[in-house]
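Supplementary Methods S3. Complex input for the pyridoxal-5'-phosphate-bound model.
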Amino acid sequence: MSVPAEVTALAEGSDHLFPCFSRADVSFTQGDGAWLHGADGGRYLDFATGIAVTGLGHSHPELVDILVRQGMKLWHVSNAVRIPEQEELAGLLCEKTFADRIFFNNSGAEAIETAIKTARRHQFVSGSPARYRIVTFEGGFHGRTLATIAAGGRPKYLEGFGPPTAGFDTVPFGDLDALARACTATTAAVLLEPIQGESGIRSMSAYDLERVREICDRQGALLILDEVQTGIGRTGHFFAYQATSVAPDILAAAKGLGNGFPVAACLATEKVAAGMTPGTHGSTFGGNPLAMAVASKVVRLVGNEAFLVDVRRKGERLRAGLEALAAEYSEAFAEVRGEGLLLGLRCVPPVAVVATAARANGLLSVVAGDNVLRLLPPLIISDAEIEEGLMRLRQVGRALSSREIAGVSVGGNKRV
Ligand SMILES: Cc1ncc(COP(=O)(O)O)c(C=O)c1O
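Predicted complex, serialized as structure tokens:
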């Protein structure tokens, strides 16, 4: 079989990139709603969304329009001056959440770093400088900076990077007795994802989240939610915590916030943010007018109850279809997990094999821990596209169940 010229060029070009990603040998030339056009001529249904980023799909006309219009007006000024676009987005986020104050970043890891600094600083200015430790749950993923790999605590991400950044304690996922024991007079905050994405779509129940809040209150610790992946409508709520009676003190958002434009935010209450006085934190790019214009439009489009109700409906439809698939092809699929359009399908064969077969069948997905295939369609997906995705997965399930996987059909990957 001859190798397409674009693929050869991709392999040669990647010689100059850091080898830290195991990239699939596929690239895309254009995106349109829930679809990506491959350089190989294939048309792919995008249930990966750049790992829960392009919630409003590719080339959303209102986002393209705002990006172009803002691009012609003003891209960047520093945070040494007032930025009205930033004030507008901060106001919008505060109106829709528990927060009173926002700091804008460029990535999820940076928003988590801001959250950690904000929690520690609050304890410091409140007369408890010894309270600097952060308690996290095993399996959590909070980014790839030195502090966020320490927060995640996973040996495979820490190995070879010197002593882990101090001040993090990790307890087993869901073990709230261990959490209560780990929260001491030196704890600044508890940091957790309402649904762990990387480690296989593992949800914390509303009941457990309420108990975590109680433990924090009892022990004088703050609650930081990492909603980098679960936020901006992904679970069918603007933020996942809004489906519970719990409100955090600090929250990190990123991914879907810019629909692919790099932007993130750390949200906090007035009381907690008050410690971040002038000079304590900063960012050159964070909150520049270009990012703010795009993110404000995203928040207006997603943070609307009718839109979110529809995400929940679509999530239930996709989940029901996945459960039917798991029942039909139990040799391939073992369990469905998740909320809204943050869904996971635990696989029987190695998940990498399933993801590769799905891609060969024109369906993009993301692998996660616990042998789970993450399915993260855009929030704007149509019912017909959900059915199309299920049909492509059914073909994979059928091939895996009949152990035909080496020759799985690629009929669904139409050439355009
Ligand atoms: C829950 C969670 N937190 C933090 C991050 C880090 O975000 P970024 O890659 O934008 O730094 C991620 C990225 O996947 C994530 O899923």
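The radius of gyration is 22 Å. Confidence is low (pLDDT under 50) at residues 1-8, 407-416.
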